[in-house]
Design a protein that fits this description.
The complex is a heterodimer of chains A (270) and B (92). Chain A is an alpha/beta fold and 270 residues long. Chain A has 14 helices and 8 strands. Chain A has one domain: P-loop containing nucleotide triphosphate hydrolases (Rossmann fold, 3-Layer(aba) Sandwich). In chain A, strand 6, helix 7 and strand 7 form a beta-alpha-beta unit. The radius of gyration of chain A is 19 Å and the shape is globular. Chain B has a domain of 59 residues. Helix content of chain B is 46%, strand content 21%. The relative contact order of chain B is 0.13. Classes of the chains: A alpha/beta (270), B alpha+beta (92). At the A-B interface, helix 7 and helix 14 of A face helix 1 and helix 2 of B.
């Protein structure tokens, strides 16, 4: 079966597209799938660093499109997880160096050799987004529980719908269960109410994301944190398995002060 | 206990409700935002349809999206000069 091609996008920058791409790709590979993660953020590449493969990048996907090298030469094989590959972006080029037709052709060329192709999309709604989305059949939209991120997600969802992507599913990233309980952060259902698309996972705010980035090792490779578990669950749901949502509240660090505060303020638990 | 409650944040209902309300309004506006080009096309087609039934003053037509806090409406102000009598088929 040819690969499922999934674009990971958000509209707004800094909400965790690249982190999500790296972790979901690594998790799918851990489940025995052959996965290519393509960094579609030409000129501002970062997926190589998040995956910890920056020292092994030789060619990039624009070299492949321009036929400077073969696809197999540009693919960086991750030695830690069998079946995981990175196709890097060009750092010294701009988004204008490719067009949507070339991206579609690239994905088509890769489809027979993989189970999954994940496209890490640049922020914004311009050419870079259109290039990344062009070759994809499905989409994962990443947002955080903040007005600007949800607003941009809404815009991106509209564009993905008009491009005929399906399914389009939502990742809510960096949720802080404590703050939701205290009524100071948009809850999962608040976001689903307004966006009305299918949820594929909620990733809690987690310091191990920063450590993983520092170390250049996707969390799903080691699996010792709530965020890693959340990404692993997302990967399972992509594979069509029914996985219940994590009980994030049990992960929330509940200090004494916040308990006292909750007692006095009489806020209901949600 | 009022002061204690205030100290511990009880006087504050939480900012998430405010975020929810603001988000809903922002999205209502975003989702109904229309490009000037599209509005012009809409205007031309509305004029074409109306012209079958009545003479209208095309110079004084106003068609706009009216945004208030909770809803968006298409508001058209179209001055009529004369209604055409008889069947539509007879005119066209």
């Amino acid at each position: 079966m040819p690969a499922r091609v999934i674009v990971v996008t958000s509209g707004k920058g800094g909400v965790g597209k690249t982190t999500s791409t790296a972790n979901i790709a690594a998790a799918l590979a851990k489940f025995g799938k052959k996965v290519a993660a393509i960094d579609a953020d030409v000129g501002l590449r970062n997926l190589d660093v998040i995956m910890g493969l920056e020292n092994r990048v030789v060619y990039n996907f624009i070299d492949v499109i321009e036929k400077t090298c073969k696809l197999s030469a540009a693919l960086v094989k991750d030695k830690r997880v069998p079946g995981l590959y990175l196709l890097p972006a060009a750092q010294t080029r701009t988004k204008d160096a490719v067009n949507p037709e070339q991206m579609v052709a690239l994905c088509e060329e890769m489809k027979p050799d993989f189970d999954f192709i994940l496209l890490d999309c640049p922020a914004g709604i311009e050419g870079g987004f259109k290039n990344a989305a062009a070759g994809a059949d499905e989409a994962l939209v990443v947002t955080t529980p903040e007005i600007p991120a949800v607003r941009d997600a809404d815009r991106i969802i509209g564009m993905l719908e008009s491009m005929g992507k399906s399914p389009i599913r939502l990742i809510i990233n960096r949720l802080r269960p404590n703050m939701v309980q205290d009524g100071d952060m948009l809850a999962k259902d608040d976001i689903l109410d307004v966006l009305s698309i299918e949820l594929i996972g909620v990733v809690p705010e987690d310091e191990s994301v920063i450590r993983a980035t520092n170390n250049g090792e996707p969390m799903t490779m080691t699996l010792d944190s709530p965020a890693a578990q959340a990404y692993l669950n997302i990967a399972e749901r992509i594979l069509g398995r029914e996985v219940p949502l994590m009980d994030l509240e049990s992960y929330a660090a509940r200090g004494l002060f916040s308990s006292i505060k909750r007692f006095f303020s009489g806020k209901r638990k949600r | 206990m009022g002061f204690l409650s205030k100290f511990f944040g009880g006087g504050n209902d939480g900012s998430s409700q405010k975020a929810k309300d603001r988000l809903k309004i922002v999205l209502i506006h975003d989702r109904t935002d229309i490009s000037p080009q599209l509005l012009d096309n809409l205007r031309d087609e509305i004029i074409d349809v109306l012209a079958k039934y009545m003479d209208i003053d095309t110079r004084k037509i106003e068609i706009n999206l009216d945004h208030d806090d909770n809803a968006v409406a298409l508001v058209a102000n179209i001055p009529i000069l004369r209604i055409r009598r008889g069947k539509v088929n007879d005119i066209t």
